[in-house]
Design brief:
The chain is mainly alpha-helical and 83 residues long. It is built from three helices and two strands; from the N terminus they run ααββα.
Length: 83
């Protein structure tokens, strides 16, 4: 997502004739936002019922393996299409 945002910034900076500092600003925002995103991902889990604290999730009823498996198939499918 960060790579896509940087690419869009580069294109839009030239297209809209924005100063070069716009790209630096986006990089700075991405760097500053990285650490809260890591902490948030560590402390919370996305469940079918919504976002829950990590310790509130019952691991025996976790759907992580199923969603991970679906993601694996999506990635493999995309790689096959690209190749």
């Amino acid at each position: 997502a960060a790579w896509l945002l940087l690419q869009l910034t580069e294109v839009l900076t030239e297209l809209l004739d924005l100063p070069d500092v716009a790209g630096r600003f986006v990089v700075l925002i991405l760097i500053v936002g990285f650490f809260p995103a890591i902490i948030f991902a560590w402390a919370f889990e996305l469940t079918p019922e919504g976002i829950k604290r990590e310790h509130e999730v019952d691991r025996s009823q976790s759907i992580t393996p199923q969603t991970g498996r679906k993601l694996d198939f999506v990635i493999i499918g995309m790689l096959v299409v690209i190749a």
